[in-house]
Every structure is written in C-alpha cells, then in structure tokens.
Amino acid sequence: MLQEELDLLMEETKEGMSLALEHLQKELTHVKAGKATPAMVDGLKVSYYGTPTLLNQVSNVTTSDAKTLVIQPWEKTMLSVIEKAIFEANLGVTPMNDGEVIRLVIPPLTEERRRDLVKRVKSFGEEAKVGLRSVRHKSMDAIKKAVKDGYPEDAGKRLEGNVQQMVDDFSKKIDLMTEAKEKEIMTV
Asked: What is the CATH number of the domain that holds 126?
C-alpha cells in the first residue's frame, strides 16, 4: 500500500514540475521580443455586448509581417471596443484603426528595453525554479514521513535521489528556455 502511495507521489511530483515548466512557457510567449505574434494579445478581453470575451473569439488575429499584428473583427462595431481594450491593456503599442482592421505595429526595441525584458525573463525563470523547489519540498516531506511509517530507508533515499534528479532535469530545461528567450530578445 505504501509503495503505491509513493509511486503516485512520484507521478504527482513530475506533474507539478511539468506544470511549472508549462507556466513558464506561457509567460515567455507574452514577452515581446520585437516581433509580432498573435500570442501578444492572448488573454486580452473585450466587451462583447456587455460580456467580457476573449479577443480571439470576436476577431481574427494574424501577422502580416514580422512587425505587424492585424486584428480583423467579425463585426465592424467591435473596432472601437477592441481599440479601447488594447489601450487599456497597456501593450506598449498604439492601435491603428482603418475602419476595416486594427493594425498593431511593434516598434523596434531599444537596448534599455531589451535589458528590461531579459530581466523579466530571468525573473520568470526564477519563479519557475521556486515552483520546482516547492514541489520538491512537498515530495521530500512525504517520503520522510513514509520512511518514519515503516518504508525501507534505503528505498526512501533512492526516491529522494529521484526527486532531486527530476528537479535538476527540469531546472536545466528552465535554463534552456530562458536562455533561448534572452537570445531572441537581444538579437537585433
């Protein structure tokens, strides 16, 4: 019975660490590296007849080139509502409304802005590592409790080693993801 619980614990540990990685990936897609991507406006809500609705549910969001995001609402009446939502979201770009579509032209990043974005990416990476350590801490406590309750000590040490190996592996993945994003940001 105890072994089954610990096997389940190891699955939950891996799942918790995977969630930290997924969260980091989502956060990194929202960091603009001077390129236009539809992910920049993911999660942006507009008032659709009084109901907060995701932008991608009332319009098509595409890129016309590396620097321009095009938002084409399905109803022309939504143009001003979408424009207002973009201003309120403080995306750092000014929407251009031509009566048909809204264009967001992403300005080139200054050196200072690039450094700020790299700092932000590093902080996201650090938050993800804190998440890993939190998952590790819970797992280690559960393993120690199981050893106290009669689980063999050498097997407990082996499980602790497995948890630490998972933390190390996921930490490397986090480092690779943040380094890749930093390189993308600093590439002019």
From this structure: 1.10.132.20
Listed in sequence order, the residues at least 6 apart from 126 whose beta carbon sits closer than 8 Å to its beta carbon are none
H or E element at residue 32:
none
**Phi, psi (rounded to 5 degrees) for 104:** -115, 115
Same domain as 120, residue 182: yes
Exposed, middle or buried, 125 (CB in 10 Å: 0-12/13-18/19+)? buried
Tens digits of per-residue pLDDT, 119-146?
A: 989 999 999 999 999 999 999 999 999 9
Task: Give the tokens for residue 74.
Answer: 């399905």
pTM of the predicted protein model: 0.69
Overall number of domains in the chain: 2
Q: Give the domain CATH number at 94.
A: 3.30.1360.40
